[in-house]
User: Which sequence fits this backbone?
């Protein structure tokens, strides 16, 4: 039956009777939503300290529910008790489930109060699960001719889907019908019970049949039908472990089917007709919301509540900086114009000049800007006013592309606008669009703004920076998905094959959204004190990185080939050793086979299984086994390291090398929360440092004939920043005097005179110095220094005793993160840390380590970005024949004519060391060579 909730409201009868039945019943799986909200939201407390994060999520859902489904029958279904009829069938059913978390227990009663405050019936019944009550009401609703919508994310309720019954995911707001059920289980809803009976459910202690997972269960149901048909056919199946298990565990499967089948004949305490929303008592509702401290919900009711106190140790929410959504009546998104003639384009250029700002977006054949072909360009000159200029649409016999401008002609008309200093050009991910346009023949494009970077400098880490996410967040608008335009899977089209009419709707919206985002985000720079970051670092870096990517760096194909062959030979030798230690040959690259060897055959201690049931063999597992003295894990680590270097660098660089024997990395400007650049294809950030293999890989990066590579690297920049922000007098003095900082640290921490310092003690001090920056633990330091944890702990305690200011800094950063949800670099960059509010201890501890390190790593990123901007201005003025090619963390790499190498090294050192003024001077080390290894 159709959803009529968005039709024009009807005038209600004055004396509506109970026989008046709405066309829709909306049921909320209250129990499921409670746990989802509790784990999804950070800690929140009422003014009296009662935890209410789950209550807030639940109440917010109720608020949406009443708005989205006016006039429908509505009820929230709760679980009343843990013991049900299923425990009589199988006592272990759900027996191992832990009790609810302490912070959740006081919230159950409050959620029942919430339903009362909103005038919504709630139903629960001793001895029955909420799922059974939902099934009963769903059956009754269909029988009464109602459409039933169940708001839940519980897969167990998918068995209820049928004509008249759908599910709705409360978080994703995604309807779940027969197609979605079949995609999840591999069978229609009517056969979900049979699949569940075969596979069981470890969460609820439903046994199922051993060895049969979701895919295997679905396959059996598809081939044989229901459970009884499968069990009947089992003796005739091909001999296998699965066949034996089906025969041996037939009764377990039958019992499991009883456990997973939802009862739809529950003696529900409220008749279907009484599941009616009642108009809430607004005064009582406001009083309840005020007691909870839910001010945002109060504002929706037109009331203003008292601010809720935020305990320092329990932040309320980390959504990023508040930037208002567009308010009032906004122009609709489309329809948009298709520009196919010179006259039409000239009119749009004139409109852009008049507006003084134009958003521009490109449509291409791929995501790699250096290889993608330009298909079309879209422009937006005002919210709701945008066009699409198709250039290379192919069309089909059924749908010809029609008239289009030649690319050269379109760019000829656009070039004066693109170069016009009086018209701001706005992009989302400008570096990509600039690369595409320049490759297509466009001239200079200036000035520019980038909405992705406008958002990034204000909210790094708080959320993603993609256009779709920003549009939903700041505009309240969900753009057309790309896959909806091009299709997916086997039938996916290139954008050049998309019909022009459909392309116009998509591309025009992209430009329109970009312009609206600019209006929403640009004013926030001043409010969030991010103007200097954006104007001084991020925006000017766009053309600098574009030039670096286009230049690329030369590689020595013969050296890479030798490196690949050497790695292969060494891997083969290690593989022989691994097979000897294992007692038999196996696929070393197979984690499953390795797990079976280590924990199934060799019975080594500490084995952990993954969700799939296989043994975990990740690096942490191998490290732990290696520390226990087992040789095989050590050799596996050696083999994996060589394999990674071979595939990631030696082989990949050969494939990515172009005709000029250069490789071109792609820099991501928003890939980290600290402002650091990341790179891909190839990733040059993770080449091992100070290892033989890393040196050999760098040796394959070479200068062109007659030129050399120049490397300029900040020396100990994060330690210098630590001395600066933590104000440690002795460290500041050591840096100012040019002392060996690690020897000085060792001398002060271990009370050893500098002249008596030995290399081992200095190495330990160095490990602590760098480890402290990353919040190293006694366990981690012990592993690194190969000492006991108690000894490592003593080192760290001695370090903090000598430098208490560092501990104060660390605690200050963690407290700032908990209070604000972010920390800042010395240059004002916000680094958001949502996980600081996590209940999971490991994730929260990781966020605390980030809170300590992010200001230092982010500060270093700010400094090198400033240096790059300065150098990009100074280098053309110097007359030196050199070019910036790479940025790798704290290092810049240039290619320069041999005759200019010394002069460029002097210029680079000067500009990098003057990029920021700290309590300690910045120091830069330079080197030159015909390859990167020589220069590094």
Assistant:
């Amino acid at each position: 039956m159709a959803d009529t909730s968005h039709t024009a409201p009807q005038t209600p009868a004055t004396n509506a009777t109970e026989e008046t039945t709405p066309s829709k019943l909306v049921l909320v799986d209250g129990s499921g939503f409670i746990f989802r909200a509790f784990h999804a939201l950070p800690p929140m407390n009422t003014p009296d300290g009662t935890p209410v994060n789950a209550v807030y999520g639940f109440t917010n859902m109720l608020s949406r529910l009443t708005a989205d489904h006016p006039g429908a029958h509505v009820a929230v279904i709760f679980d009343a008790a843990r013991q049900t009829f299923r425990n009589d069938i199988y006592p272990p059913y759900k027996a191992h489930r832990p009790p609810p978390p302490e912070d959740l227990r006081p919230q159950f009663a409050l959620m029942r109060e919430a339903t009362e405050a909103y005038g919504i019936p709630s139903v629960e019944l001793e001895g029955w699960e909420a799922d059974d009550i939902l099934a009963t009401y769903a059956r009754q609703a269909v029988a009464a001719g109602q459409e039933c919508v169940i708001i839940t994310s519980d897969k167990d309720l998918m068995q209820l889907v049928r004509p008249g019954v759908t599910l709705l995911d409360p978080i994703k707001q995604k309807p779940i019908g027969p197609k979605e059920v079949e995609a999840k289980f591999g069978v229609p809803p009517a056969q979900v019970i049979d699949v569940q009976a075969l596979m069981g459910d470890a969460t609820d202690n439903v046994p199922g049949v051993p060895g049969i997972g979701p895919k295997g269960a679905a396959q059996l149901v598809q081939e044989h039908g229901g459970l009884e048909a499968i069990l009947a056919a089992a003796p005739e199946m091909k001999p296998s472990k699965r066949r034996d298990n089906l025969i041996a565990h037939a009764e377990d499967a039958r019992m499991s089917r009883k456990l997973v089948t939802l009862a739809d004949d529950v003696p529900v305490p409220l008749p279907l007709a009484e599941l009616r929303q009642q108009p809430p008592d607004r005064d009582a509702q406001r009083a309840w919301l005020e007691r909870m401290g839910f001010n945002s919900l109060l504002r929706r009711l037109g009331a203003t509540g008292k601010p809720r106190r935020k305990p320092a140790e329990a932040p309320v929410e980390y959504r990023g900086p508040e930037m208002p959504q567009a308010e009032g009546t906004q122009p609709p998104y489309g329809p948009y114009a298709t520009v196919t003639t010179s006259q039409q384009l000239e009119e749009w250029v004139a409109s852009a000049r008049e507006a003084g700002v134009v958003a521009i977006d490109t449509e291409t054949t791929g995501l790699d800007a250096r290889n993608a072909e330009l298909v079309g360009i879209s422009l937006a000159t005002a919210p709701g006013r945008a066009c699409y200029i198709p250039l290379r649409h192919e069309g089909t016999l059924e749908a010809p592309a029609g008239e289009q401008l030649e690319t050269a002609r379109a760019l000829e008309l656009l070039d004066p606008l693109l170069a016009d200093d009086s018209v701001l050009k706005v992009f989302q991910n400008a570096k990509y669009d600039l690369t595409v346009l320049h490759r297509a023949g466009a001239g200079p494009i200036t000035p520019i703004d980038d909405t992705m970077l406008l958002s990034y400098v204000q909210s790094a880490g708080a959320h993603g920076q993609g256009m779709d996410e920003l549009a939903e967040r700041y505009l309240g608008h969900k753009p057309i998905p790309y896959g909806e335009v091009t299709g997916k899977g086997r039938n996916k089209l290139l954008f050049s094959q998309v019909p022009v009419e459909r392309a116009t709707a998509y591309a025009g919206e992209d430009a329109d959204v970009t312009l609206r985002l600019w209006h929403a985000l640009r004013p926030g720079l001043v409010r969030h004190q991010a103007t200097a970051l954006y104007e001084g670092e991020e925006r000017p870096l766009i053309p600098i990185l574009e030039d670096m990517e286009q230049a690329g760096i030369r590689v020595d194909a013969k050296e890479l080939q030798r490196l690949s062959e050497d790695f292969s030979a060494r891997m083969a030798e290690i593989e022989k050793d691994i097979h000897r230690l294992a007692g038999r040959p196996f696929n070393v690259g197979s984690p499953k086979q390795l797990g079976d060897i280590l924990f199934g055959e060799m019975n080594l201690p500490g084995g952990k299984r993954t969700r799939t049931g296989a043994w975990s063999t990740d690096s942490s597992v191998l490290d732990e086994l290696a520390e226990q003295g087992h040789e095989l894990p050590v050799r596996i680590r050696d083999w994996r390291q060589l394999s990674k270097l071979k595939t990631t660098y030696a082989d990949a660089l050969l494939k990515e090398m172009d005709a000029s024997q250069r490789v071109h990395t792609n820099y991501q400007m928003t890939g980290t929360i600290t402002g650091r650049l990341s790179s891909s294809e190839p990733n040059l950030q993770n080449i091992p440092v100070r290892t033989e293999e890393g040196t050999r890989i760098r040796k394959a990066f070479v200068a062109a004939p007659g030129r050399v590579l120049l490397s300029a690297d900040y020396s100990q920049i994060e330690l210098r920043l630590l001395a600066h922000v933590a104000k440690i007098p002795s460290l500041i003095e050591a840096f100012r005097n040019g002392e060996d900082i690690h020897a000085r640290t060792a001398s002060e921490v271990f009370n050893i005179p500098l002249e008596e310092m030995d290399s081992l003690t200095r190495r330990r001090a160095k490990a602590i110095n760098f480890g402290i920056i990353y919040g190293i633990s006694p366990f981690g330091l012990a592993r690194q220094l190969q000492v006991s944890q108690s000894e490592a702990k003593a080192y760290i305690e001695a370090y903090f005793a000598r430098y208490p200011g560092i501990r104060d800094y660390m605690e200050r950063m963690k407290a700032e993160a908990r209070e604000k949800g972010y920390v800042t670099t010395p240059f004002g960059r916000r680094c958001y840390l949502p996980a600081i509010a996590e209940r999971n201890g490991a994730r929260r501890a990781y966020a605390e380590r980030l809170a300590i390190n992010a200001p230092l790593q982010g500060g270093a990123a700010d400094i090198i970005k400033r240096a790059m901007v300065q150098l990009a201005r100074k280098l053309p003025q110097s007359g030196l024949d050199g070019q910036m090619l790479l940025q790798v963390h704290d290092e810049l790499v240039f290619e320069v004519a041999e005759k200019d190498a010394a002069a460029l090294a002097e210029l680079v050192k000067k500009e990098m060391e003057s990029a920021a003024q700290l309590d300690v001077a910045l120091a830069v080390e330079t080197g030159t060579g015909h390859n990167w290894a020589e220069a590094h």
In short: The first helix runs from residue 30 to 40.
